[in-house]
Amino acid sequence: MTVYILCFVLFLVGLYGLITRRNLIKIAISLSIMEFSIFLMLVLIGYIDNGLMPIVDPGLSAQVYVDPLPQAMVLTAIVIGLATTAMLMAIAIRLYRKYKTFDIREMKNLRG
Amino acid sequence: MDALIPLFVAIPLISAFLIVILGKLVKGFHRFLAPLTLLVLLILAVYEFTGLGKISITYAMGGWTSEGGVPVGIYLVLDGFSVLMLCIINLIGLIALFYSLSYITKYTAESNYFALFCLIIAGMNGVVLSGDLFNLFVFLEVSVISSYALVAFGVGKTELEASFKYQVLGGLASMLILLAIGLIYWKTKTLNIADVRNVLDAGYSKPFYLFVQVLLIAGFGLKAAIIPFHAWLPDAHSSAPSPISAMLSGVLIKAVGIYVLIRLFFNMFVFSYEIALVLTSLGAISMVVGSLLAIKQWDLKRLLAYSSISQVGYVVMAFGMGILLLLRGNNEAAAVLAIGGAIYHMINHAVFKGLLFLNAGAIEHRLNTRNLKEMGGLSKAMPVTSTTSFMASMSISGIPPFNGFFSKLIIVIAAINGRFYLLATLAVVVSIITLAYFLKFQRFAFFNKSTGKALDKIKEVPFAMSFSMIFLAVLCLALSLLALPSVRDSILSPAIDVLMQSDLYFTSTLGL
Questions:
Q1: Is B304 a domain residue?
Q2: Residue B24 has what pLDDT?
Q3: What is the reported pLDDT for B495?
Q4: What's the pLDDT score for residue B451?
């Protein structure tokens, strides 16, 4: 159970950073921290103590395997996370070119 | 027929990549391929719609069907509700794309625009068809990431700022959804929506699933911009190019937000009173607050964006009311009315909000401003835009011959039948407030005295744009026919049945 609580703490660290940081890059990093806390949780869900890697060998019976499905999910989710982060960084660089700063307090064209 | 289902995802994906690869080499390739793709998809959707009736079709990707009653592969499920959404997505997509052919000429990198447009359609079709939770998440990200890029397509200061805000909130929403999917998998050891329902029917711990449901409401609520989660919507929808605003407001927030929320709460989870109460009150709050925020806007597209929040509130409120009535169990007729009204209003909102954003785009195309104070006297200079936007405004505020009146009427009647008198009153009052701010839009844009700009130089927009607007305006009138019982039975009833008989989904999907 401890590992899940630690994952949740990591999630909260990311959320704290997302809310309090004022720098575009740090916001992107906080989002990545949140993402990876969830990836860790997904992998841990599929982990079984003393489990083997999930390659079924017909010769051996009654083996315990770890659950391969969360691993496949995490691999997919990492790729999606990469796309999101790349997109976020591209926009952050464009914003830097327009405003000459990463400070989010300087960017307030949109309100109301 | 079931072999056609993967084509809804495959065709737009293939043409998106073809446009990126060949668009730079062959001149005008994207202008030909992208509308053709959408046309083929629309024909496919209508063909599936006419052939489907009340049955549902399951397609197992790669031939991986079930093993001892437990599904192992990824399922695509086509039933009454999803096929209706497919028709709407591809219809609005085709119209917006046809409109873009003229509109997008003022931007550079046209081929990228059309490629992203095809990707967003592929993602939404995938979300609507998917019968698997994680697959749904993947398609959701495909459509949402391409919408981030499309919001920032103008690469000005406001566009980039709006896109960054949208991405941070959208990323947070995706994380909440992924967390909820992980938790569901932890307890049920399955990701198939129908199979999860099967497992839940055998017994479940309520507090755990309430937590999961709250996570899902927060996640999909952020995507659908229900009121406490709405902060990104006015920025993103007003900064995007107008056809994209029409897509985002008209279809995207419904396909990846409300549709998924409703599908999961009706067909996957067992109804619970608390969640129904949360949905109803969130819907009612966003209905009222969205319309109050819209009144004071002077930026035309911001006004329309806030009105989207308000109209989406109607839909969510009606669905919540439907769940409450089903739980109460003694008034099934009112529940059918509420759910039918919600689906009907969802279709209508896609049509008239799409049309209004296209009108806003037409005005912006000729005047280069979105500020209502700088417009005026356009009714003579742009007759087509003026007439169609008048029809859309009357439709959204619920004036009788148009479709918006009937869907709002059905929702109000359902609320009165179910003895939700407060909600019925609120729905009527909000409708009047909606009329107020759309009359403001009409007066300042089309009927006021001109504010100094040389009006004689302003011409009507090109054919592709005016044709799209006229088509949607005619659709606004034609959709009121759905209120007739015989037409309703053939079009809306299959969708209502899927939601009303919530066990039907998993029995037919798993083939039990």
A1: yes
A2: 79
A3: 86
A4: 64
| Overall domain count for chain B | 1
Range of the domain at A27: 2-52+64-106
State which amino acid sits at residue B310: S
| Mean pLDDT across A40-68 | 82
| Mutation target among B178, B230, B233, B309 for the A interface, most CBs of A within 10 A | B178
Domain with A69 in it: what CATH number? Answer: 1.10.287.3510
Residue of A nearest to B177 (CA): A38
* pLDDT computed for residue A51 by the predictor: 80
What tens digit of pLDDT does each residue of B213-253 get? 999 999 999 999 898 888 899 999 988 999 999 999 989 99
Residue B144 forms part of a structural domain: no
ipTM of the predicted assembly exceeds 0.90? yes
- Return the residue in B155, B166, B168, B190 with the most chain A beta carbons within 10 A, the one to mutate for interface testing: B168
Contacts (Cβ under 8 Å, ≥6 apart) of B396: B307, B311, B349, B352, B353, B356, B404, B434, B438
The residue of chain A with its CA nearest to that of B170 is A84
Instruction: Tell me the three-class secondary structure of chain A, residue by residue.
Output: CHHHHHHHHHHHHHHHHHHHCCEHHHHHHHHHHHHHHHHHHHHHHHCCCCCECCCCCCCCCCCCECCHHHHHHHHHHHHHHHHHHHHHHHHHHHHHHHHCCCEHHHCCCCCC
- Residue window 235-254, chain B: list those with CB within 8 Å of chain A: 235, 239
In tens, the pLDDT along B7-51 reads 999 999 999 999 998 887 888 888 888 899 999 999 999 998 888
Residue A89 placed within a domain: yes
| Average pLDDT of the residues in B118-137 | 92
Chain A partners within 8 Å of B149 (Cβ) = 87
State whether residue B187 sits within 8 Å of chain A by CB.
no
- Phi first, then psi: give them for residue B359, nearest 5 degrees: -60, -45
| B438-484 pLDDT, tens digit each | 999 998 888 877 666 556 677 778 888 889 999 999 998 888 888 88
Residue B167: which domain range? 152-510
What is residue B459's predicted lDDT score, i.e. its pLDDT?
78
Q: Tell me the pLDDT of chain B averaged across its residues.
A: 88
Nearest residue on chain B to A67, alpha-carbon basis: B189
Residue A63 to chain B, least CA–CA distance (Å):
19
Q: Which positions in chain A touch B160 (Cβ < 8 Å)?
A: 91, 94-95, 98
Angstrom distance (rounded) from CA A107 to CA B397 = 35
Distance from the A38 Cα atom to the nearest Cα atom in chain B, whole angstroms? 6
- The count of structural domains within chain A is 1
Do B175 and A94 make contact, defined as CB atoms within 8 angstroms? no
Question: How far away is chain A from the Cα of B464, in angstroms, using its nearest Cα?
Answer: 31
Phi, psi of B70, rounded to the nearest 5 degrees: -105, 120
Q: Is the pLDDT of residue B55 over 90?
A: no
* β-sheet bridge partners, residue B337: none
* A89 touching B (Cβ < 8 Å): no
Closest CA of chain B from A49, distance in Å: 16
User: How many C-beta neighbours within 10 Å does residue B64 have?
Assistant: 12
- Quick one: closest CA in B to A103, which residue? B161
The SS3 call for residue B57 is strand
Instruction: Tell if the CB–CB gap between B179 and A91 is shorter than 8 Å.
Output: no
The per-residue pLDDT for range B163-204, each reduced to its tens digit, is 999 999 999 999 999 999 999 999 888 888 888 888 888 888
Q: Which two tokens stand for residue B438?
A: 């759309």
